[in-house]
Design brief:
Blueprint lengths: L10 E2 L14 E2 L4 E2 L3 E3 L7 E4 L4 E3 L17 E5 L8 E2 L9 E4 L10 E3 L4 E6 L4 E4 L12 E10 L6 E10 L2 E9 L4 E7 L7 E4 L10 E8 L4 E6 L2 E7 L11 E3 L12 E10 L5 H11 L2 E5 L8 E2 L9 E4 L6 E3 L4 E6 L4 E4 L13 E9 L4 H4 L2 E7 L3 E8 L5 E8 L3 E7 L10 E7 L9 E4 L2 E3 L1 E3 L14 E3 L10 E10 L5 H9 L6 E5 L8 E2 L9 E4 L6 E3 L4 E6 L4 E4 L12 E8 L12 E8 L5 E7 L5 E6 L5 E5 L9 E9 L4 E7 L2 E8 L13 E3 L11 E10 L5 H9 L5 E5 L4 E5 L5 E3 L24 E4 L4 E5 L4 E3 L3
Parallel strand pairs: 1-56
Antiparallel strand pairs: 2-3, 4-5, 5-6, 7-22, 8-9, 9-12, 10-11, 11-22, 12-21, 13-18, 13-22, 14-15, 14-21, 15-16, 16-17, 18-19, 19-20, 23-39, 24-25, 25-28, 26-27, 27-39, 28-38, 29-34, 29-39, 30-31, 30-38, 31-32, 32-33, 33-37, 34-35, 35-36, 40-55, 41-42, 42-45, 43-44, 44-55, 45-54, 46-51, 46-55, ...
Helix pairs in contact: 1-3
């Protein structure tokens, strides 16, 4: 009795037992449905909804439970922050070794040209003879099928008479790989010349114009496979052009501030900051993230420290913090790499007051952090996340709020009006789960009210009174994890705290939260190819595969779109050696959707048949496979010292239906190998590795078999194969296994909660997670059910699900 909701059907996992009472139902309209029917509203709320006897209501509008930080360093081949304050060396922060040299025709020292930048400091170019030179490198060049992304902030001091070069790579007037120039019409133009007498075959301008004294971010992408050039301004796509010819590949140098082959001609007058070049095409969402994550960033503490007491600040403003309360920081697994732990007693990070972070809400400001609260904190459930205040006399606090439960609050001190606070509604965040919290506010706005966000979505709140004049916080230190009297310590982990000197929009905050989903993803083969033998890597790392065994891929219906069929004989995909697929002594994760036919016993050879594998000539080797003796999923890792650890699941895979399988290696000298099936942890094995997981053969990674004999070819259909250079958490694997399309819904037996997917495939809890158990007894009008079952309670007019022990209301 599931109903269509704006032409999106609710898709249910087979693990969920549907239980509906037989009582008569009232009717909901637009669209028509009876009480207890569920559907996904694609064009309206973007939420799972159910009919509650009279109207459609949101089914558990609880914040998403999973998000993963993006790897904006993937295929980054040049990153010049331009934060130098002396000398002539311009550092390439990408790790690619493309350092530059500063020239000014005076003393080759940037000291006189160092100015306040968009991110930290930047370099001022005088419009006459200031420029940076970076030597030619193939990764920075054009050429047939080249893929490139350029990004830079610029702030002009004057409008040129003609044009002024911002970022260029060219050899001569007729041989220009690519150039970006600020024009007399105040646009930015991209153009190139291919040396074949074709004068400037593309003069591609932004639609936007740019005033002097204003910072703007220019980003452009080029896909040589289609010759498509896209121009973005401040994270938003403005124009798409199709180039007539391939970009040239010349030996010209890259220059910032002038044209490579014409010194002193068309030089730029103004400031340039944070120049990046990727040898891949960034997605539109990555570009939105790049803008949102750097726009007006005045404070950024990643909290990745593992020793000492110094806490580094990464915006470039130098607001280093000091960890107080322990002899050294207490590090733990974070949402992004590691995080700092706060002890519910006296731990905090102190950052001295500074003009760059003082009074950030004057004229508009935004604060945010990832938090993993274990309780609501010290001092009556009000553990501080971020605070810049002196008690109740001045400044502001962002803190937990256990007074009503499952909430956080933002409070400010007002001139002659005491304290005002805004508390989010109950149920907006969870204890013992990662959540991203943010507050954006402009105290110059007459409304003087904040917008509060949990996991990228604005949330409702209650407030006290109104505040017309905010007290200054300029005299107060910024604290992470506590307040000035150290009596409100946070209890749990805090990660990636940020302050922006501007009011970020809802879409910008969503981009920062949402575009965390590719962090650590080093290979993502969607396997949607329908012809040929080239297998695309969607991770952005360029780990393209080659299908072998047939003249072309064998495409069939997949779990998501299409998938590839492997015949168990000689079909496989080989992926060439690349540093991104070497894991050393670090963590890693493999995952894929697989469909093994009922006729298959996984007896190809050895331990079974391989879905995803890596192998050197003999060792190390790692494989995610179908086990030979019982057709269970298995994950095995053997290091270069021949130490092997395996974990085997307990669900036969050879039933002709789709299963999501995932293997995780976490730790090294104290390692654990995990195996998951359909989002549920089925087994784990502990051990100790002493060697590494680096590979030196030409094609160490393969899908459908091992790359060297014994091959262990698999008979199966495989879809959405992934490799990560980190250990995925149980909730992240649940997301991969539950969310394949908007509106999909399934019961997560690991977390003991019913979950569903929104339009961007974020996972939402439909209610409060339980502890699991054997089932739920009949109660009132509710009939008995097993864990994962759900039904409509005609007494309360609410949907409920069984968490294994009791019936849980799905909030509305």
């Amino acid at each position: 009795m599931l109903c269509e909701r704006l032409k999106i059907f609710l898709v249910l996992f087979v693990m969920v037992l549907l239980v509906f009472p037989s009582a008569s139902h009232a009717v909901c309209s637009s669209p028509t449905g009876v009480a207890g029917e569920m559907g996904f509203d694609l064009t309206g709320t973007g939420q799972m909804e159910y009919c509650n006897d009279t109207s459609w209501v949101e089914a558990g509008a609880i914040a998403p439970v999973v998000a993963i930080e993006p790897n904006m360093n993937a295929a980054l081949v040049g990153h010049w922050r331009l934060d130098e304050t002396s000398g002539s060396t311009i550092t390439d922060s990408s790790g690619s070794g493309n350092g530059g040299t500063w020239s000014d025709n005076v003393n080759a020292d940037v000291a006189e040209e160092t100015v306040a930048g968009k991110l930290g400091t930047s370099i001022h170019f005088d419009g006459t003879d200031d420029y940076v030179t970076i030597a030619d490198n193939a990764a920075l060049s054009g050429g047939t099928n080249a893929t490139l992304t350029w990004s830079f902030w610029f702030n002009p001091d004057s409008i040129p008479a003609g044009e002024a070069q911002l970022l260029t790579k060219s050899l001569s007037s007729e041989n220009k790989d690519w150039e970006f120039a600020y024009k007399d019409g105040q646009t930015v133009r991209f153009y190139y010349e291919n040396g074949s007498g074709n004068d400037a075959p593309c003069r591609c301008d932004t639609i936007s114009t740019f005033n002097t004294g204003e910072w703007n971010l220019i980003t452009a992408t080029y896909d040589g496979n289609t010759n498509a050039l896209k121009m973005y301004v401040n994270g938003v796509l403005e124009s798409t052009f199709t180039l007539t010819y391939d970009l040239p590949d010349t030996t010209g140098s890259v220059q910032i501030g002038q044209r490579s082959y014409a010194a002193g001609v068309n030089n730029f007058d103004g400031d340039i900051d944070d120049v990046r070049i990727y040898d891949r095409v960034l997605t539109s969402t990555e570009i939105a993230y790049l803008y949102a994550s750097t726009k007006d960033l005045v404070g950024h503490w990643t909290l990745d420290e593992t020793s000492g007491t110094s806490v580094t600040e990464y915006s470039g403003n130098g607001n280093t913090g000091t960890f107080i309360g322990e002899a050294a920081v207490v590090s733990a697994d974070g949402k992004i790499d590691t995080a700092l732990t706060f002890d519910n007693s006296n731990d905090y990070v102190s950052i001295s007051a500074d003009a760059t972070i003082n009074d950030v809400f004057t004229g508009g400001g935004t604060i945010m952090a990832w938090i993993y609260p274990e309780t609501y904190g010290e001092g009556g459930n009000y553990g501080r996340i971020l605070a810049k205040a002196s008690g109740g006399s001045d400044g502001w606090h962002m803190h937990m709020d256990g007074g009503t439960g499952e909430a956080f609050a933002f409070s400010v001190n007002c001139v002659a009006a005491g304290n005002e606070w805004w508390r989010t509604n109950t149920g907006t965040l969870q204890i013992n789960e990662w959540s991203h919290v943010a507050v954006s506010m402009d105290t110059d706005n007459t409304a003087n009210t904040p917008t509060m966000y949990v996991n990228g979505e604005s949330v409702s709140y209650t407030s006290t009174g109104s505040c017309t004049t905010f007290s200054s916080d300029s005299a107060e230190n910024l604290l992470i994890g506590n307040m000035d009297n150290t009596a409100r310590t946070f209890d749990g982990q805090i990660d990636d705290a940020r302050i922006y000197g501007g009011t970020l929009s809802a879409s910008e905050i969503k981009a920062i939260y949402q575009q965390t989903q590719n962090y650590g993803l080093v290979g993502h083969w969607k396997l949607d190819e329908t012809s040929g033998t080239s297998i695309a890597d969607s991770s952005g790392n360029g780990n393209t595969g080659t299908f072998s065994g047939e003249a072309a891929v064998v495409s069939v219906a997949g779990k998501i779109d299409t998938a590839l069929s492997f015949d168990g004989s000689d079909d496989y995909i080989g992926i060439n050696d690349d540093d991104t697929l070497d894991f050393g002594t670090g963590d890693f994760s493999f995952a894929a959707w697989v469909n093994v036919p009922t006729s298959e016993d996984c007896s190809s050879a050895g331990d079974g048949e391989t879905f995803i594998g890596q192998r050197d000539s003999s060792r190390p080797h790692t494989y995610l496979a179908c086990h030979v003796s019982d057709q269970y999923a298995t994950f095995t890792a053997k290091d270069s010292d021949d130490i092997s650890i395996s974990s085997i699941g307990n669900t036969p895979l050879n039933d002709g239906v789709w299963h999501h399988v995932a293997g995780v290696k976490e730790g090294h000298s104290s390692a654990i190998i995990y195996i998951y099936v359909d989002g549920v942890l089925q087994n784990s094995t502990a051990g100790s590795f002493t060697g590494d997981f680096n590979y030196n053969v030409a094609t160490p990674t393969s899908i459908g078999r091992f790359n060297v004999s014994p091959y262990y070819n698999v008979t199966a259909v495989i879809d959405e194969a992934r490799m990560y250079n980190r250990a995925l958490s149980a909730s992240e694997i649940a997301q991969l296994s539950i969310c394949t399309k908007p509106g999909e819904m399934g019961y997560n037996f690991g977390a003991h909660v019913l979950q569903w997917c929104d339009v961007v495939l974020d996972v939402y809890n439909a209610g409060t997670a339980g502890a699991g158990g054997g089932g739920c007894a009949a109660a009132g009008t509710k009939v008995a059910g097993v864990e994962g079952g759900y039904q409509y309670d005609t007494t309360s007019n609410k949907m409920v699900f069984c968490d294994g022990a009791s019936w849980v209301d799905i909030p509305n």
